[in-house]
């Protein structure tokens, strides 16, 4: 996929914004549009697969394409995670453990076949730049991380009984520490990267629910999703990256 962004402070802010948008988009499709979890999930996954297939075959792929893929994959992951927690009803800690194990296995198998999820390259000035790879292993891992974030966010807010506001504060603090401690390091390992992604996906669930829910801002899924998408566009256009790269 071409136009892959550099992993820096800008990247983490955009990932959070795209994740909030995807969270509320998934809820909008399953709840407001009445598609249900089983109707919304295949729709988003089909759209995502079409985007991935077309990425190497169309001329207009750039950074915005990557962020749109993040939004769509997060929406689908939200619906499949909600299907598990709301209808199948296994224990949330078990689901979280399953998602982490699945993520670890995905990274291990991908590495075995030469598909690293983070690419670090040298700059002409002697520094280093890290970017997501955008390969199959990367996107499977991102969907698993998104499902983890949905379950973890709901677990904090509902099952631990601290409410949306409390969950948003706790998950934001954790994500902030993760970004400062791990995400700012260009040479951070792929495990560090995915640790920060898990934290970002979790706080996005809480912030999205806080914006949309009646016990929060009460914007509803459509308006909160639209607001997050508008912020994503503004951030992408006004806070320009230093450079973009091509990766497969």
> Compute the gyration radius: what is it?
17 Å
What percentage of amino acids are in beta strands? under 5%
How many separate domains make up the residues?
1
Q: State the strand order across the main sheet.
A: 1-2
Rounded mean pLDDT score: 87
Report the span from N to C terminus. 5 Å
Q: Would you report the number of β strands?
A: 2
Structural shape: globular
The biggest beta sheet reads:
2 strands, antiparallel
Helical segment tally?
8
The class by helix and strand makeup works out as mainly alpha
SSE series: HHHHEEHHHH
Q: What level of helicity do the residues show?
A: over 70%
Oligomer: single chain
Q: Could you characterize the architecture of this molecule?
A:
The chain has 248 residues and is mainly alpha-helical. The protein has one domain. Strands 1-2 form a two-stranded antiparallel ribbon. A hairpin with a 5-residue loop joins strand 1 and strand 2. Helix 1 crosses helix 2 and helix 4 runs antiparallel to helix 5. The termini are close together. The model has no long low-confidence stretch (mean pLDDT 87).
Give a short overview:
The chain is built from 8 helices and 2 strands, in the order ααααββαααα. By secondary structure, the protein is mainly alpha-helical. The chain has one domain (9-238).
Key words describing this protein structure:
8 helices; two-stranded antiparallel sheet; globular; mainly alpha; 248 residues; single chain; 72% helix
Could you outline the blueprint of secondary structure elements for this entry?
Elements: H1 9-32, H2 36-55, H3 63-88, H4 92-112, E1 118-122, E2 128-132, H5 136-159, H6 163-183, H7 190-212, H8 220-238
Antiparallel strand pairs: 1-2
Helix pairs in contact: 1-2, 1-3, 1-7, 1-8, 2-3, 3-5, 4-5, 5-6, 5-7, 6-7, 7-8
